[in-house]
Amino acid sequence: LDLSEDPVLAKPLRVGLLGAGPIAAAEAGKHLLCETAMAPTLSGCQAMIDAADAAEVTLMIAQNLRFSRTAMAIKHLIDRGGLGEIQAVRAHASFGAGTSNPQGHWANDGRRAGGGILMTHSIHHVDLLRFFLGNVRRVVAVCRSVQREMVNGAEDLIAATVEFESGAIGAVFSSQSRFLVPDAMSCAIFGSEGTLAGSGRDRQD
Hints:
Blueprint: E1 8-11, H1 20-27, E2 31-34, H2 42-55, E3 59-61, H3 69-79, E4 86-96, H4 110-113, H5 117-133, E5 136-144, E6 157-164, E7 169-177, E8 185-191, E9 194-199
Parallel strand pairs: 1-2, 2-3, 4-7
Antiparallel strand pairs: 4-8, 5-6, 6-7, 8-9
């Protein structure tokens, strides 16, 4: 890494370099914009946070969905009570196995990525639901690894039921299958005064 010039390190450095790269950059006084997965272990994530705190630099994970105009408009609608009390949310996402991530790709390796489809892709959808509703209190989930591309415990199927601190409940489903559905990504928000739903066919910018 050349840490001599830019004040910000935007890190597409993937998981194999996550520990040394961001920590060295933080120690050099660089602000950090990091991709998912943040690190393969919780301790690795905490080490990055500690290094950024110690150096008094900004560390941000590139959770891009919450910054789309659509998401910000939905958040505004929720906050002003346009949907009433939010009672439930749902997020579904499907990705093609062996297409975007071929066999041997780091994102299919549980040791290198810290998981599979949830950690590398659907973490964005989990973050979006947290943006809308706040933090999660409880999670019950089942993961499966069924495609040959997924190794070392990396999951390509995940189904989770979550309870938010607000009392709302949610469902998260993600798959990395050879057979895609027409609406590969969808989200729904159920309120006491209205329901809002959208799919991957809708604009995300």
